[in-house]
């Protein structure tokens, strides 16, 4: 009798003990406690990390992690959380309890959506979401009033998310390589933008760029006025009352 083929199992990943995790603790140049578990072939976040939750920075990038456990909310004082280059498909709602978080890096994962609870990270200044499978952002992102930088490159956005227009302190938005719809795509066909596309506030432009922007606004305004007057004249001939 022929032997059946063995079913391929998911890689278990490397087991991290508490002692190994303690040996991965670092002190940054500015005196912050950093737990560096990058490049460790971890497939699941070790439960023993709950005993090291008083760190300032946690780096679990470049691993095999598919899920972030709910106990992530025990890292209440954490300021930097780096989870880039894993296999994350979703985030727990408990991530919204990391009230002191300044930097959240979720690049190069498999995220298709984000929890509304991200809007609770009111101190967040940098949010990296590039290289995922996102086509929308939760409206709660508009509550991140301290956000300066948001990376959305290499996703599935067809237009600039409306919620980011509410972020008054935002300095840069990276929408590189998204299938953005252009104004002349009446058939709703998408075109891939290969060049860099950034959104910045006017105050961060140089004097030359601000002058060009002002002239462009004036040009558009004049065009609109001419079109309006032309419409009035045309309708006068047609007997339309204004």
From TrEMBL:
GO terms for cellular component: cytoplasm. This is Disease resistance R13L4/SHOC-2-like LRR domain-containing protein. Coiled coil: none annotated. The keyword Repeat applies. Keywords: Leucine-rich repeat, Repeat. Pfam families: LRR_14. SUPFAM superfamilies: Outer arm dynein light chain 1. It comes from the Eukaryota. Residues 76-178 form the Disease resistance R13L4/SHOC-2-like LRR domain. The keyword Repeat applies. It comes from Amphiprion ocellaris.
């Amino acid at each position: 009798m022929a032997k059946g083929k063995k079913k391929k199992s998911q890689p278990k990943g490397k087991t991290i003990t508490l002692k190994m995790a303690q040996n991965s603790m670092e002190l940054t140049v500015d005196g912050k406690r950093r737990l560096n578990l990058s490049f460790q072939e971890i497939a699941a976040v070790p439960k023993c990390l709950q005993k090291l939750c008083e760190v300032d920075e946690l780096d679990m990038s470049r691993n095999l992690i598919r899920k972030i456990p709910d106990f992530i909310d025990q890292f209440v004082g954490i300021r930097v959380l780096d989870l880039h280059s894993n296999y994350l498909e979703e985030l727990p709602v408990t991530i919204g309890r990391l009230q002191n978080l300044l930097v959240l890096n979720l690049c190069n994962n498999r995220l298709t959506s984000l929890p509304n609870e991200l809007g609770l990270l009111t101190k967040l200044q940098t949010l990296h979401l590039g290289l995922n499978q996102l086509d929308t952002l939760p409206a709660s992102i508009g509550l991140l009033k301290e956000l300066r930088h948001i990376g959305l490159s290499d996703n599935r956005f067809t237009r600039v998310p409306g919620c980011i227009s509410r972020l008054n302190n935002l300095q840069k938005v990276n929408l590189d390589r998204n299938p953005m719809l252009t104004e002349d795509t009446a058939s709703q066909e998408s075109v891939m933008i290969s060049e860099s596309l950034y959104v910045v506030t006017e105050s961060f432009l140089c004097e030359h760029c601000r002058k060009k922007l002002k002239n462009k606004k004036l040009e558009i305004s004049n065009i609109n006025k001419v079109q309006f007057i032309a419409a009035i004249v045309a309708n006068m001939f047609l007997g339309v009352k204004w």
